[in-house]
Amino acid sequence: MSLEILKKYKISAKKALGQNFLVNEQIVTEIAESIEVEWKNIIEVGPGYGALTEQLLEKHPQSLNLVELDSDMIEILNDRIKNEDFDLSASEFKINNIDVLKYEPTHEEYDVIANIPYYITSPILQHFLYKTEFSPKKMVILMQDDVGQKILGKGKNKSSVLSLFIEKKCTVSEVIKVPKENFIPAPKVESAVLLFETHWKFNETKDDIFLSIIKKWFSEPRKKMIKNLIKGGFQKDIVQNLFEKMNISENTRAEDLNIEQWIEVTEFLSRT
Question: How do residues 34-73 score in pLDDT, each as one tens digit?
Protein backbone atom coordinates (compact mmCIF):
# COMPACT_ATOMS: atom_id res chain seq x y z
CA MET A 1 0.00 0.00 0.00
CA SER A 2 2.79 2.44 0.89
CA LEU A 3 4.50 1.92 -2.45
CA GLU A 4 1.18 2.49 -4.22
CA ILE A 5 0.67 5.79 -2.38
CA LEU A 6 4.20 6.92 -3.19
CA LYS A 7 3.60 6.17 -6.85
CA LYS A 8 0.09 7.64 -6.98
CA TYR A 9 1.13 11.01 -5.55
CA LYS A 10 4.60 10.99 -7.11
CA ILE A 11 6.12 11.48 -3.69
CA SER A 12 9.84 12.08 -3.35
CA ALA A 13 11.64 12.65 -0.10
CA LYS A 14 12.83 16.14 0.75
CA LYS A 15 16.40 15.97 1.96
CA ALA A 16 16.12 19.34 3.70
CA LEU A 17 13.36 17.92 5.92
CA GLY A 18 15.23 14.69 6.63
CA GLN A 19 12.48 12.56 5.08
CA ASN A 20 12.78 8.78 4.74
CA PHE A 21 9.51 6.90 4.21
CA LEU A 22 9.00 3.62 6.05
CA VAL A 23 7.44 1.25 3.49
CA ASN A 24 7.48 -2.09 5.31
CA GLU A 25 3.83 -2.62 6.29
CA GLN A 26 4.66 -5.24 8.93
CA ILE A 27 6.95 -2.83 10.76
CA VAL A 28 4.33 -0.08 10.53
CA THR A 29 1.88 -2.52 12.12
CA GLU A 30 4.32 -3.37 14.93
CA ILE A 31 4.74 0.34 15.68
CA ALA A 32 0.97 0.86 15.73
CA GLU A 33 0.58 -2.09 18.13
CA SER A 34 3.43 -1.08 20.48
CA ILE A 35 1.12 0.97 22.72
CA GLU A 36 -2.56 0.89 23.50
CA VAL A 37 -4.39 3.23 21.12
CA GLU A 38 -8.11 2.55 21.59
CA TRP A 39 -9.83 5.49 23.32
CA LYS A 40 -6.48 7.19 23.95
CA ASN A 41 -5.38 10.67 22.91
CA ILE A 42 -2.61 10.15 20.37
CA ILE A 43 -0.24 12.64 18.75
CA GLU A 44 1.48 11.39 15.61
CA VAL A 45 4.54 13.43 14.65
CA GLY A 46 5.71 13.28 11.05
CA PRO A 47 2.80 11.28 9.56
CA GLY A 48 3.93 11.93 5.99
CA TYR A 49 1.33 10.49 3.63
CA GLY A 50 -0.42 8.59 6.43
CA ALA A 51 0.82 4.97 6.41
CA LEU A 52 0.84 4.77 10.21
CA THR A 53 -2.10 7.17 10.51
CA GLU A 54 -4.33 4.73 8.66
CA GLN A 55 -3.54 1.90 11.09
CA LEU A 56 -3.90 4.09 14.17
CA LEU A 57 -7.37 5.21 13.10
CA GLU A 58 -8.42 1.59 12.64
CA LYS A 59 -7.76 1.15 16.37
CA HIS A 60 -10.23 3.98 17.20
CA PRO A 61 -8.29 6.41 19.39
CA GLN A 62 -10.26 9.01 21.32
CA SER A 63 -8.36 11.64 19.39
CA LEU A 64 -5.57 11.68 16.81
CA ASN A 65 -3.62 14.87 16.23
CA LEU A 66 -1.18 14.82 13.33
CA VAL A 67 1.78 17.23 13.45
CA GLU A 68 3.27 17.67 9.98
CA LEU A 69 5.53 20.48 8.76
CA ASP A 70 5.54 19.61 5.05
CA SER A 71 2.63 21.39 3.33
CA ASP A 72 2.83 18.96 0.38
CA MET A 73 2.13 16.09 2.77
CA ILE A 74 -0.80 18.04 4.21
CA GLU A 75 -2.32 18.20 0.72
CA ILE A 76 -1.87 14.46 0.27
CA LEU A 77 -3.40 13.70 3.67
CA ASN A 78 -6.40 15.91 2.88
CA ASP A 79 -6.83 14.22 -0.49
CA ARG A 80 -6.73 10.79 1.16
CA ILE A 81 -9.40 11.97 3.61
CA LYS A 82 -11.54 13.12 0.69
CA ASN A 83 -11.05 9.68 -0.91
CA GLU A 84 -12.13 8.05 2.38
CA ASP A 85 -8.82 6.23 2.85
CA PHE A 86 -9.06 6.89 6.59
CA ASP A 87 -11.71 5.71 9.03
CA LEU A 88 -12.61 8.90 10.89
CA SER A 89 -15.91 7.64 12.29
CA ALA A 90 -14.83 7.10 15.89
CA SER A 91 -12.07 9.66 16.45
CA GLU A 92 -11.55 13.35 17.03
CA PHE A 93 -9.11 14.05 14.21
CA LYS A 94 -6.99 17.07 13.33
CA ILE A 95 -4.04 17.84 11.06
CA ASN A 96 -1.68 20.48 12.43
CA ASN A 97 0.62 22.09 9.84
CA ILE A 98 3.23 23.28 12.33
CA ASP A 99 6.80 22.74 13.48
CA VAL A 100 6.55 20.13 16.24
CA LEU A 101 8.87 22.22 18.45
CA LYS A 102 6.15 24.89 18.48
CA TYR A 103 3.28 22.48 19.02
CA GLU A 104 1.45 22.41 22.36
CA PRO A 105 -0.67 19.30 23.07
CA THR A 106 -4.36 19.96 23.65
CA HIS A 107 -4.95 17.16 26.17
CA GLU A 108 -3.50 16.62 29.63
CA GLU A 109 -3.16 12.87 29.04
CA TYR A 110 -1.80 11.71 25.72
CA ASP A 111 0.76 9.48 24.01
CA VAL A 112 3.13 10.29 21.16
CA ILE A 113 4.05 8.19 18.14
CA ALA A 114 6.73 9.66 15.91
CA ASN A 115 8.76 8.93 12.81
CA ILE A 116 10.96 11.99 13.04
CA PRO A 117 13.94 13.41 11.16
CA TYR A 118 16.95 12.01 12.96
CA TYR A 119 18.74 15.34 13.21
CA ILE A 120 16.06 16.73 15.56
CA THR A 121 15.52 13.65 17.73
CA SER A 122 16.98 15.26 20.86
CA PRO A 123 15.09 18.59 20.53
CA ILE A 124 11.79 16.75 20.02
CA LEU A 125 12.33 14.54 23.06
CA GLN A 126 13.26 17.56 25.15
CA HIS A 127 10.21 19.44 23.85
CA PHE A 128 7.71 16.82 24.97
CA LEU A 129 9.48 15.95 28.22
CA TYR A 130 10.40 19.43 29.42
CA LYS A 131 8.72 22.21 27.46
CA THR A 132 5.08 21.25 27.02
CA GLU A 133 2.70 21.94 29.90
CA PHE A 134 1.90 18.25 30.24
CA SER A 135 4.29 15.43 29.33
CA PRO A 136 3.07 12.36 27.43
CA LYS A 137 2.43 9.14 29.30
CA LYS A 138 4.22 7.16 26.61
CA MET A 139 6.19 7.87 23.45
CA VAL A 140 7.05 5.48 20.63
CA ILE A 141 9.88 7.01 18.59
CA LEU A 142 11.55 5.73 15.44
CA MET A 143 15.14 6.97 15.55
CA GLN A 144 18.71 6.34 14.50
CA ASP A 145 19.83 3.09 16.11
CA ASP A 146 23.13 4.29 17.52
CA VAL A 147 21.31 7.19 19.23
CA GLY A 148 18.83 4.68 20.60
CA GLN A 149 21.63 2.52 22.00
CA LYS A 150 23.15 5.59 23.63
CA ILE A 151 19.81 6.37 25.28
CA LEU A 152 19.50 2.76 26.43
CA GLY A 153 22.96 2.98 27.96
CA LYS A 154 24.40 0.18 25.88
CA GLY A 155 27.94 0.05 24.50
CA LYS A 156 30.37 2.16 26.50
CA ASN A 157 27.90 2.54 29.38
CA LYS A 158 28.67 6.24 29.72
CA SER A 159 26.21 9.01 30.55
CA SER A 160 25.46 11.93 28.22
CA VAL A 161 23.22 14.98 28.32
CA LEU A 162 20.76 13.09 26.11
CA SER A 163 20.64 9.93 28.21
CA LEU A 164 20.41 11.86 31.47
CA PHE A 165 17.60 14.22 30.55
CA ILE A 166 15.62 11.22 29.35
CA GLU A 167 16.39 9.09 32.43
CA LYS A 168 15.13 11.87 34.67
CA LYS A 169 11.71 11.53 33.05
CA CYS A 170 11.41 8.05 31.51
CA THR A 171 12.19 4.41 31.48
CA VAL A 172 13.15 3.28 27.99
CA SER A 173 12.94 -0.06 26.18
CA GLU A 174 13.52 -1.17 22.61
CA VAL A 175 10.51 -2.23 20.53
CA ILE A 176 12.12 -3.31 17.25
CA LYS A 177 15.15 -2.82 15.01
CA VAL A 178 14.42 -1.34 11.59
CA PRO A 179 17.05 -2.10 8.93
CA LYS A 180 17.66 0.71 6.46
CA GLU A 181 16.32 -1.23 3.44
CA ASN A 182 12.81 -0.76 4.85
CA PHE A 183 12.86 2.92 3.90
CA ILE A 184 12.61 4.91 0.69
CA PRO A 185 15.09 6.40 0.26
CA ALA A 186 17.26 4.15 2.41
CA PRO A 187 19.07 6.18 5.10
CA LYS A 188 22.78 5.73 5.65
CA VAL A 189 22.21 4.40 9.17
CA GLU A 190 20.23 1.64 10.85
CA SER A 191 17.12 2.53 12.84
CA ALA A 192 15.24 1.36 15.92
CA VAL A 193 11.91 2.01 17.59
CA LEU A 194 12.08 2.89 21.30
CA LEU A 195 9.31 3.04 23.88
CA PHE A 196 9.52 5.83 26.47
CA GLU A 197 7.33 5.53 29.58
CA THR A 198 7.28 8.57 31.84
CA HIS A 199 7.72 8.30 35.61
CA TRP A 200 7.64 10.67 38.59
CA LYS A 201 10.71 9.35 40.39
CA PHE A 202 12.81 12.52 40.20
CA ASN A 203 10.07 15.14 39.93
CA GLU A 204 11.10 16.91 43.15
CA THR A 205 14.36 17.94 41.47
CA LYS A 206 13.71 21.07 39.42
CA ASP A 207 14.06 20.51 35.70
CA ASP A 208 15.67 23.85 34.83
CA ILE A 209 18.39 23.50 37.47
CA PHE A 210 19.06 19.88 36.51
CA LEU A 211 19.41 20.73 32.81
CA SER A 212 21.61 23.74 33.53
CA ILE A 213 24.00 21.73 35.70
CA ILE A 214 24.41 18.73 33.40
CA LYS A 215 24.96 21.02 30.40
CA LYS A 216 27.70 22.88 32.29
CA TRP A 217 29.40 19.65 33.31
CA PHE A 218 29.22 18.21 29.82
CA SER A 219 30.45 21.43 28.17
CA GLU A 220 33.84 19.73 27.76
CA PRO A 221 33.11 16.06 28.58
CA ARG A 222 36.70 14.84 28.39
CA LYS A 223 37.80 17.28 31.07
CA LYS A 224 37.51 16.58 34.77
CA MET A 225 34.15 17.52 36.25
CA ILE A 226 35.67 19.79 38.85
CA LYS A 227 37.20 22.04 36.17
CA ASN A 228 33.94 22.32 34.25
CA LEU A 229 32.00 23.18 37.39
CA ILE A 230 34.41 25.90 38.45
CA LYS A 231 34.41 27.23 34.89
CA GLY A 232 30.60 27.20 35.07
CA GLY A 233 30.62 29.55 38.07
CA PHE A 234 30.65 27.28 41.11
CA GLN A 235 33.21 27.97 43.86
CA LYS A 236 36.06 25.47 44.15
CA ASP A 237 35.57 24.76 47.87
CA ILE A 238 31.87 24.02 47.33
CA VAL A 239 32.66 21.62 44.49
CA GLN A 240 35.36 19.88 46.54
CA ASN A 241 32.91 19.54 49.43
CA LEU A 242 30.40 17.95 47.06
CA PHE A 243 32.95 15.43 45.79
CA GLU A 244 33.91 14.49 49.35
CA LYS A 245 30.26 14.09 50.36
CA MET A 246 29.57 11.81 47.37
CA ASN A 247 32.85 9.94 47.78
CA ILE A 248 33.91 10.49 44.18
CA SER A 249 37.36 11.29 42.87
CA GLU A 250 38.36 14.74 41.61
CA ASN A 251 39.47 12.91 38.46
CA THR A 252 35.87 11.94 37.71
CA ARG A 253 34.42 12.99 34.36
CA ALA A 254 30.80 13.93 33.75
CA GLU A 255 30.07 10.75 31.80
CA ASP A 256 31.05 8.58 34.78
CA LEU A 257 28.05 9.48 36.99
CA ASN A 258 24.65 7.79 36.78
CA ILE A 259 21.26 9.50 37.03
CA GLU A 260 20.93 9.02 40.80
CA GLN A 261 24.31 10.69 41.35
CA TRP A 262 23.36 13.56 39.04
CA ILE A 263 20.17 14.11 41.02
CA GLU A 264 22.27 14.25 44.19
CA VAL A 265 24.66 16.73 42.53
CA THR A 266 21.74 18.92 41.44
CA GLU A 267 20.15 18.92 44.89
CA PHE A 268 23.45 19.80 46.55
CA LEU A 269 24.39 22.62 44.18
CA SER A 270 20.88 24.09 44.16
CA ARG A 271 21.19 24.66 47.90
CA THR A 272 24.51 26.52 47.66
Answer: 999 999 999 999 999 999 999 999 999 999 999 999 999 9
Answer yes or no: do 111 and 245 share one domain. no
CB atoms within 10 A of CB 184: 16
Read off the pTM.
0.92
Looking at the fold, whether 138 and 38 belong to one and the same domain comes out as: yes
Domain count across the chain: 2
Of 63 and 232, more confident: 63
CA angle 219, 222, 225 (to 5 degrees): 65
Dihedral sign (CA 9, 13, 18, 23): positive
Question: Which among 178, 198, 218 is the end of a domain?
Answer: 198
Q: Is 176 helix (H, G, I), strand (E, B) or coil?
A: strand
- State how far the Cα of 178 lies from the Cα of 181, in Å rounded to an integer: 8
The whole domain housing 241 covers 207-270
CATH number at residue 246: 1.10.8.100
Output phi, psi for 200, to 5 deg: -115, 15
